[in-house]
Amino acid sequence: MYGPPGTGKTLFAKKLATHSGMDYAIMTGGDVAPMGRDGVTAMHKVFDWASTSRQGLLLFVDEADAFLRKRATERISEDLRATLNAFLYRTGEQSKKFMLVLASNQPEQFDWAINDRVDEIVHFALPGLEERERLVRLYFDRYVLQPASEGKQRLKVAQFDYGQKCSQIAQKAEGMSGREISKLGVAWQAAAYASEDGILTEEMVEVRVDEAIKQHKQKMEWLKAERDGSAQGGTILSNKAAEGSFIPKAPDLGDAV
């Protein structure tokens, strides 16, 4: 799975494990590098556990590019290289004992041997207008309308057209992820609690939306600057390396999603 942060990759993996009836384990690529020499032992333990599971094991590796990156790069340590080799050894053959789900924001950094194990590629894109409106309505209801209607907390909502306001926010929130939109709901609730009378007004809603959009634009500028810097100082790939992107093959339970 690949796509921008906050688009639901981790949630999807958890739901997949729940509905498949398999045992579930999660690890992040960033956890592996600090393990040093112990990384190889830990990797073998995970797959040994998978071989003893009656239900089979779904292993979800978040931020997988952090340790499954190209072995040819100088940025990978010998310990990390050995851990990657152990991972490749244990996933080199088909198996009904485990299923791998890899999530990454930068799948182009995967070692080619990892790409060769990929069966299916799922792109988690940013939400479109319709999805954004559904998300805005969902979180406005969860964090504002429901608590206000229950009357158990110090939160009230001023009278304005909630539906129309959610549609307007969805229009303005273009480019924002589902996670960023969910944080809007929390921000609206916090704004009401912080007010003197505990009432969330339309103006307060707009202020939090404008702040979120401003922060989103700032993050996009940082990302663009980082990519521009990498492009200027990076290595130009040969045609063969450039072609080393994801090529799906016939699905098998023992390979990676």
Task: Report on this structure.
- With 257 residues, this protein is mostly helical.
- It is built from 10 helices and 5 strands, in the order αβααβαβααβααβαα.
- The chain has helices spanning 9-20, 29-32, 38-52, 78-90, 112-117, 129-150, 162-172, 178-194, 202-233, 239-242; strands at residues 23-28, 57-62, 98-102, 156-157, 199-200.
- α3 runs parallel beside α4.
Mean pLDDT: 83
Strand order of the largest sheet: 1-2-3
* Structure classification: mainly alpha
From the spread of the alpha carbons, the general shape counts as elongated
Residue runs with pLDDT of under 50 for 5 or more positions: 234-257
Number of beta strands? 5
Q: Order of SSEs, N→C?
A: HEHHEHEHHEHHEHH
Number of contiguous helices: 10
Concise overview:
The protein is mostly helical and 257 residues long. The protein has ten helices and five strands; from the N terminus they run αβααβαβααβααβαα.
What is this structure's SSE topology?
Layout: H1 9-20, E1 23-28, H2 29-32, H3 38-52, E2 57-62, H4 78-90, E3 98-102, H5 112-117, H6 129-150, E4 156-157, H7 162-172, H8 178-194, E5 199-200, H9 202-233, H10 239-242
Parallel strand pairs: 1-2, 2-3, 4-5
Helix pairs in contact: 3-4, 6-7, 6-8, 8-9
